[in-house]
Amino acid sequence: MMARLSQFRLKGLLFLAIAVFAVPLFISNPFHYGLATQIALIAGAVVGLNLLVGFAGQISLGHAGFFGLGAYFSAIMTSTYGWSAIPALIVGAIVVAIIAWVVGRPILRLKGHYLSMATLAVGFIIAIILNNEREITGGPDGMPVPPFDVFGWELSAFGQYSLFGMDISGDLAWYLFAGVVLLAAVWLAQNLIDSPIGRALRSVHGSEVAASVVGVNTAKYKSLVFVISAVYASVMGALYGHFQGFITPSVASFDFSILLITMVVLGGMGSTIGVIIGAVVLELLPQLLADFQEMEMVLFGLILMLTMIFMPKGLLPTATNLLAKRRSKSAGGDA
Amino acid sequence: MTALVEVNNLSKAFGGVHAVEGVSFAVDAGQVYSVIGPNGAGKTTLFNLITGLYTPTSGEVKLNGESIAKLQPNQLAERGMCRTFQQMQICMNMTAIENVMLGRHLTLKSNLLTTLFRLPALTRGEKAARQKSAELMEFVGCGEYLDTEASAMSYGALKRLEIARALAAEPKVVLLDEPAAGLNAVETAALEELIRKIAEQGITVMLVEHDMKLVMGISDRLLVLNYGRVLAEGTPEQIRANPDVIAAYLGG
User: Of A2, A300, B99, B214, most Cβ neighbours within 10 A?
Assistant: First the structure.
């Protein structure tokens, strides 16, 4: 399996890399680049959430809270205190990690509905704080975020850059940057899964009792994966803020938490590439159905329900299973 | 020499029901020690108490002279105690060999950094763990299932897989809860052979089992429980000749 798993891992990553770098061949207008960038950043957060939900079998209905915290921490540090973007992002991730650890330690003792409710509450509390602390966050009106900068070099969607002698627009530059970040996020997640730590995480899902009798400290690993997935959300949130140039507390909203979970479930819990497909579908769908905007939440709810009923394994695993079945059938027919 | 596992006056009550009451015995290192008794006699409860899944109402359990009654199962694994279950506990979301490699958890020292960046140290450890796990699967007799999804394996193969996982943790003592339940005669004979081979490696085996032929054949000593109390304790010959046991259990 290790041979197979690492093969599969590389295949998935290669497929994703091709998809990411092929996108600019098909689109050119800034709006589309903006959408693609947004999808890539949100997909990164979903990859992190999938570690918690898909692999370790836990749940977080408040994950947008961590996304929002990361976004606001970077926004406040770079705009109000004049920090550079990267230190703000890193310190933000550390702060979110500590918060997730402190919060996760007690609530991850809970299971099922109780854990759902507790994580839901965490998300609400964060959203309420962001809404009410006007002095710091600007309240419901939101706050502007300076462009992302690296050693004084700024990445702005309105800039002009040259890469390997080619002139590229700021939109494209941002998209490529987000794509590379997503690839890195996937690579790290896949390394984590195919390791002793990853096995311990998956065993918490498979059988907590089995895990504990061979020496896995299940409480520790649940906290660990909760922290890791929160850090994913925080980093992606910080980048999202820089990219958008302006954030409101909606980045930490309940609706957004549910959207993230729906992406995981639709794409396929426990399938890293699958959940990215889930993110792409659920970000594109509202664009295609722009006329029914007020029905968005209804639509997401419906998708979540139908997925759970008709393909509980999610889009990608279901599709691969079907394909494998068909292949073995046709192979059987030949024999 | 102190016994490897020592149980003193152990009791567990669920509400008013005394599932295990005042049980004492000692298991020396290297023995095959079986716990038998009619259904509901408290055998599995006793195992759950010893392995830290239940907290005793009173009494104590010692492993290598250290009191372990308040420790968590994962802490017991660190001290060399591992087990299998009557209701098998297999991670169905993994392949067969990954389940066994999970048993290597404590021997694989890994930190987050080497993991996330998949540094050579991690790959080396994983390779060794896979090698060892494959050997163990061969040893228990399910070597042909290496990369099979656990959910696609037969009941008998999963039972052996669970033993391989317990052995992967390199335990001093392994507790097998009804390993022969649901197995046919051929599989049971293979299991008997396997338990012998485990004992030959110097691993102490504790066994809860219904199959009397199996138990009498491989045990060094037996403990007979009835209604949560010790009915008899001794060698297979002594147990076979004990009139109380014959009356309560063997039905002679």
Answer: B99
CA atoms of A73 and A77, how far apart (whole Å): 6
Q: Which of A201, A214, A231, A325 to mutate to test the interface with B (most CBs of B within 10 A)?
A: A214
Q: Please give the single-letter amino acid code of residue A274.
A: G
Interface confidence, given as ipTM, is 0.90
Q: Which of B71, B105, B107, B159 to mutate to test the interface with A (most CBs of A within 10 A)?
A: B105
Q: Is residue B180 part of a domain?
A: no
Interface contact A205-B93, CB threshold 8 A: yes
Same-domain pairing of B68 and B121: no
Is the same domain home to B135 and B118?
yes
Asked if B27 and B38 sit in the same domain, the reply is yes
In chain B, where does DSSP find H-type helix?
43-50, 73-78, 96-102, 112-116, 120-140, 155-168, 185-200, 212-218, 236-241, 243-245
Closest residue by Cα to residue A226 from A75, A86, A12, A65: A65
Q: Are B93 and B19 in a shared domain?
A: no
Residue ranges of chain A whose CB lies within 8 Å of a chain B CB: 1-2, 4, 188, 191-192, 195-200, 202-203, 205-207, 209-218, 224, 270
* B53 and B89 belong to one structural domain: no
Mind telling me how many Å the CA of B185 is from chain A's nearest CA?
27
Q: What is the CATH number of the domain that holds B132?
A: 3.40.50.300
Is there a contact between A211 and B104 if contact means CB atoms under 8 Å apart? no
For residue A8, the one-letter residue type is: F
Distance from CA of A192 to the nearest CA of B (A): 5
Residue of A nearest to B50 (CA): A213
Q: How far is CA A314 from the centre of its chain?
A: 16
Residue B180 phi, psi dihedral angles, 5° rounding: -95, -5
pLDDT digits (tens, 9 = 90+) for A154-182: 888 778 887 777 788 889 999 999 999 99
CA end-to-end distance (rounded Å), chain A:
27
Is residue A51 pLDDT above 90, yes or no?
A: yes
pLDDT over 70 (residue A129): yes
Looking at the structure, do residues B92 and B132 belong to the same domain, yes or no?
yes
Question: Does any domain span residue B193?
Answer: no
- Dihedral through CA A231, CA A233, CA A236, CA A238, nearest 10? -80
Q: Which residues of A touch B165 (CB under 8 A)?
A: 210, 214
CB contact under 8 A, A214 and B118: no
Splitting chain B (252 residues) into consecutive groups of 10 residues, what average pLDDT does each group show? 88 92 95 91 94 94 92 94 94 95 90 90 92 96 94 93 96 95 91 95 94 91 93 93 81 53
pTM score of the predicted model: 0.92
Q: Domain residues for B220?
A: 1-80+200-252
Tell me the per-residue pLDDT of B168-204, one tens digit each, with 9 for 90 and over. Answer: 999 999 999 999 988 999 999 999 999 999 999 999 9
Dihedral sign from CA coordinates of B166, B170, B175, B180: positive
Same-domain status, B8 and B22: yes
B236 or A328: which leads in pLDDT = B236
